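quick q for whoever's on today - can somebody do inverse folding on this one?? i tried earlier but teh output was garbage lol. tokens:
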């Protein structure tokens, strides 16, 4: 009887162990468990990944909660100033996106910082690749002297490789997270080496030369982008100041801005135009090297 009980206990322990590793492999969820929470939606997961690249520790669900709180507060406050629910809702939605715009700005800042260090990153890799046993060994060793701006994504690449991810897929994911064309070219060269085994040293040096040639134009673009962003901020500040100054000089202007139909239209339209201008400035930063 005891041997039978012992075998049953061992079998039960094996089942528990396999379930434990299945859960770890699927980020704590078994494959056969259906997704029930709205926070498991692919959009939320994508936002979480976006925020991790921007090095923002706050989960996406909390960020979206802050957006909703801002929307409600702005709707309530603007509804007291300007009794026009539809227009107040539009203004609330626009201002409610401010946390998302902040994340977008942080993400752009991070990707631009990683783009700036692509040249020393490739140079650092070449130094280890020429003496390494294989490609993965060069990736591991080059982590010791990798640039701080790109260190998080490089370490994530190493973690993907160590956890059994295919090198080709891990390199493509690395390039997508870094977010510039040079990272994709770099990944393509390494994948070519994995597929064919050819010496890629000359290709890597050619990639460095091309990056150096385009570096000057990219610096000019970033300077223009910064100027455009600051110009948009100044426009927003001046618009708020003009409205405040006019009401301060003549309190009767409050009625023309917030209580008449034409004033409500002008205020709402002005807010929309300013937000579109800001989005245009942000969109300029999406251009990749």
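ok took a stab at it. sequence:
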């Amino acid at each position: 009887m005891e041997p039978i009980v012992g075998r049953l206990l061992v079998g039960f322990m094996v089942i528990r162990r396999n379930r434990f590793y299945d859960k770890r492999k699927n980020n704590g969820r078994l494959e056969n468990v259906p997704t029930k929470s709205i926070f498991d939606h692919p959009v939320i997961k994508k936002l979480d990944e976006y925020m991790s690249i921007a090095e923002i520790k706050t989960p996406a669900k909390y960020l979206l909660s802050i957006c909703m709180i801002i929307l409600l507060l702005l709707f309530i406050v603007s509804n007291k100033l300007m009794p026009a629910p539809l227009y107040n809702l539009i203004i609330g939605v626009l201002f409610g996106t401010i946390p998302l715009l902040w994340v977008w700005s942080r993400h752009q800042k991070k990707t631009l910082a990683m783009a700036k260090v692509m040249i020393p990153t490739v140079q650092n890799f070449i130094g280890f690749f020429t003496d390494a046993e294989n490609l993965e060994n060069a990736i591991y060793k080059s982590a010791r002297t990798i640039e701080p701006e790109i260190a998080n994504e490089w370490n994530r690449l190493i973690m993907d490789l160590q956890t059994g991810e295919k090198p080709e897929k891990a390199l493509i994911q690395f390039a997508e997270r870094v977010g510039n064309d040079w990272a994709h070219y770099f990944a393509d060269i390494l994948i070519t080496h994995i597929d064919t085994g050819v010496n890629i040293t000359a290709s890597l040096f050619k990639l460095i030369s091309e990056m150096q040639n385009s570096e000057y134009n990219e610096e000019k673009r970033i300077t223009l982008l910064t100027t455009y962003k600051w110009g948009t901020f100044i426009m927003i500040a001046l618009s708020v100041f003009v409205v405040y100054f006019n009401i301060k000089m003549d309190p009767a202007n409050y009625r023309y801005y917030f209580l008449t139909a034409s004033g409500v239209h002008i205020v709402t339209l002005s807010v929309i135009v300013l937000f579109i201008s800001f989005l245009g400035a942000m969109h300029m930063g999406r251009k990749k090297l």
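fwiw The two ends are 71 Å apart (CA to CA). also Residues 1-21, 23-35 have pLDDT under 50 and may be disordered. so keep that in mind when u check it
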